[in-house]
Amino acid sequence: MSALRVNPYVLSDLLADLNNTQQQADTSSLQMATGSRINKPSDDPAGAAEMVGNNIETVRTDTFLRSITSVSGLLQTADSTLSSVVTALQRAISLGVEGANGTLSDSDRNDVANELTGIQQQILSLANTDYQGEFIFAGTATVQPFVTDAASPSGVTYDGNAGTNDVQIGQSYSLQVNLPGSQLFTDPQGHVFQSIADLISALKSNTNIGEALDQISLAYNYITGQRVFYGNALNQLQAQQNFLNSDKLDLATAANSTSAADMAKAATDFSQAQIALNAELAGISRISQVSLFDYLK
Amino acid sequence: MSNLLSTMFIATGAMAADQGALEVTANNVANVNTPGYSREIPVLQEIAPVVLGNVTYGTGVTLAKIQSVRDPILQLRIQQESGEQGKLNAFVNALDQAQTLFKSGDGDLASEMSNLFSSVAQLSTNPADVSLRQAVLTAASSLTSAFNNLAKNLSTQRSNLNLNVAESVKEINTLTQQIAALNGKIGALQNVGQDASGFIDQRDNLVAQLSGLIDLSAIKSDSGIALTTSNGTALVTGMQSYNLSAQDDASGVQHVFTQQGADITSQINSGSLAGLIEARDQTIPGLLNQLDTLAAGLETAFNQANAAGFDLSGNVGGNLFTPPPASLTGAATDMAVAIADPSLIAASSDRSAGSNGNLANFSAIQDQPIISGATPGTYYANLVFDVGNDVSNNTAELQSSQLVLQQLQDQRGSISGVSLDEEAAHMVQFQRAYDAAAQVVVAVNQMLETVINMGTVAVSS
Q: pLDDT tens for residues B388-414?
């Protein structure tokens, strides 16, 4: 009786072990099912907090990318509209050169002037272009920017404002997305409408045609210069889009290394737990069967 | 002088003792699965010998007493560890439910915040668009629902814990009453020199259950066991038990009172009651406070941003969210969007409908340290960390406490547990001894017959 007495109640220990093994099996099968090793904050508190930050950044990056898509539609529309304006001005210049030819009759010059009036109308309509229901050259106003006005020397008045909008396309990176119509079409350095109106009246009166041609060339050069703004903005959008896409990839990689379950390990853990579970069950079924009483027959 | 009859008495006495010993074995075997049962051993004792002339005769054996095998110190350790385990278990269970609310993914607070900022960014690409404005209001209202639900769920868990506190107090009272009654029975038996081990086992078992509920310190005295909480509140003295009571305070929180009316709610340090109270009075209210702070911070920041700009009609912006209460309490539960008309979002910085200049003030909120020195996202991430860390630390402690308790139970089992092998061996041993003693009776009987026949032979001859 001097030998150490052993706890005869092995069953409760075995059941506790069984419970632990069952839990291991559950954990690894949950990891395999969700593909994530963080299924509740306590699985890895620091990792869970990191994932909150990562999710926020990912949504933010997606948001910037979506803004870029929206804005580039607007910028492309503006750019191609200005391209049409430039083409129209080229036509106006060649018409002006034609009209300046001294051999032209009054009625011929009138025809040229009438054609220029058509171009004037075309540019007016281009200047009133809208994108998704909003006028793109009205500044920050939402009214039709250019309206015909017989009282005005240029034939139009600008009802928009000089406001501009910035759109955020990156963390602390905002891009100006519009130029107000007043800056593009009615700036003193190159007043598109005034120069056309002046050319028309010069042709009609056959005076100062050369001067009017100089003005319209100035307007042409000016608006070509302004158009660079949109080209630059589109380039910046493209560059930022590339950056954000690689940023997104980095975020996804970080998320993966923070929270993705090691599938191979989870699968191994699971099968090991299964084996242990079987062994424990077999042990339990045997152990409770035998005692000395069985041999006292 | 020795005679045959005294030999017969020794043998029959041995048979009685062995039978008694076998009865102990039978009782052990019968109680092999009884929780808290301590195995008993028969204490066999030599009867005082008689001296006749030069010879000392043994006079046989008697079953002196039946003794329970138990280690009171070990029992005490088990009680302490049960208290620790009860506390951790209750706490982990409570928080394990709470932490699922902070699981990251679609619909969690962080993604709802992100969605709101995302909708603002979308609006900035076309600030006059009514459907994009509506999207901002929808996102804002989803965010408020997320806050509302989270806070309500936490409050519900808190009131469930509150019910558990009241239930635990009832259980404690039942146990202390039973222990006091057992004290009486044990005392009565011991006063007349009887063995009370059956009742002692029952009492140990009840005390272990009780220590799983509330912190206990036990003092053994003549009148049985005296139980107090560690801060000295009497629960049982002798045959007297003292009921605790649970009563609502002004805000409906159940406090624990002694029979004398002292509030001991904050003085309970172990047992499941302590875990429940810690989760109910500290951890969950702490989480609710953090949510309130976050909700109020966001509401105030958005309202300030909206007031800095002009709405679609060119008027100065009003409140986007219902302003939080000054105390911040309930900010998360009652968070609500203040406007239903999307044109009231003050996107413009120059009064023109097409300006998005003021939306930058909204977007800036996500990068500003407006919530206790942290950005809203970081504040929430810290909250998730705190919840997770609380659960994981306490789970680790719970697991180690379980291991300790398991080892103590093993130790208790190795001392007090019934081993069927051992009992089988004892059974054989006592049975053989009984057989042997019976053989002695048979032998004496034959010898007596010889003696009696001696007389009849003489008469007949």
A: 999 999 999 999 999 999 999 999 999
Helices (H) and strands (E) in chain A, counts: 7, 8
Residue B118: its chain A contacts at CB < 8 A?
A: 59-60, 62-63, 66
CB–CB contact B410 A51 (8 Å): no
B414 vs A5, A55, A172: nearest CB: A5
Interchain contact B74–A (C-beta under 8 A): no
Closest to B15 in 3D by CA, of B448, B459, B449, B444: B444
- The pTM (predicted TM-score) of the whole model is 0.85
Q: Is the dihedral of CA B209, B210, B213, B214 positive or negative?
A: negative
A10 to chain B: nearest residue by CA?
A: B410
- Backbone dihedral angles phi then psi of residue B388, each to the nearest 5 degrees: -60, -40
Nearest residue on chain B to A4, alpha-carbon basis = B414
Assess contact for B423 and B28: CB atoms under 8 A: yes
List the single residue in A60, A66, A165 with the smallest CB-CB distance to B357: A165
Rounded Cα distance, B339 and A38, in Å: 38
At B30 the pLDDT is 94
- Cβ contact B360–A67 (<8 Å): no
Q: What is the pLDDT of residues B248-297, one digit of tens each?
A: 988 889 999 998 889 999 999 999 999 999 999 999 999 999 999 999 99
